[in-house]
């Protein structure tokens, strides 16, 4: 599905974080060959490849840094955002927030987020 082919019946994401967690979970499901579960899943306005392409373009354009991608992967695998009030997660929380703002702005422009 491309940017211009947004499914009208698809449920849009509420935030950049929701989009990111959905993306990582969907990649994991696909990697583990749980393709049959896809039919029962909620329809989304984009495909996994669309999100992967968006993240790649943001990285290659310099809008997302190596550090931000590392934090996104680390906490995405934990299925939670870093917390600013936990001492050893404070710096990661700042990187996470900036990355999620970039993702949310870009995804909203594509019609993936309400």
Give the SSE layout.
Layout: H1 16-31, H2 48-60, H3 66-78, H4 90-109
Write up this protein.
- There is one protein chain.
- The protein has 114 residues and is mainly alpha-helical.
- The chain has one domain (16-109).
- It has four helices and no strands.
- The chain has helices at residues 16-31, 48-60, 66-78, 90-109.
- Helix 1 (16-31) packs across helix 4.
- The longest helix has 20 residues, at 90-109.
- It is globular and about 40 Å long.
- The mean pLDDT is 88.
Helix content: 40-55%
- Can you count the beta strands? 0
The biggest beta sheet, please?
none
Count of domains = 1
Which radius of gyration do the C-alpha atoms yield?
A: 14 Å
Decide which structural class fits the backbone: mainly alpha
Distance between the termini: 18 Å
Shape: globular
The tally of helices reads: 4
H/E topology pattern: HHHH
Report the mean per-residue pLDDT as an integer: 88
Briefly, what is this?
This protein is mostly helical and 114 residues long.
Q: Which terms would index this structure?
A:
114 residues; mainly alpha; 4 helices; globular
């Amino acid at each position: 599905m491309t940017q211009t082919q947004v499914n009208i019946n698809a449920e849009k994401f509420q935030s950049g974080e929701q989009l990111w967690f959905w993306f990582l979970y969907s990649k994991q499901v696909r990697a583990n060959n749980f393709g049959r579960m896809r039919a029962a899943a909620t329809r989304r306005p984009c495909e996994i490849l669309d999100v992967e392409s968006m993240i790649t373009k943001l990285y290659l354009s310099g809008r997302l840094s190596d550090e931000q991608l590392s934090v996104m992967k680390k906490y995405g695998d934990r299925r939670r955002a870093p917390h600013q009030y936990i001492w050893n997660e404070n710096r990661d929380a700042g990187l996470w927030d900036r990355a999620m703002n970039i993702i949310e702005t870009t995804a909203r422009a594509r019609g993936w987020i309400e």
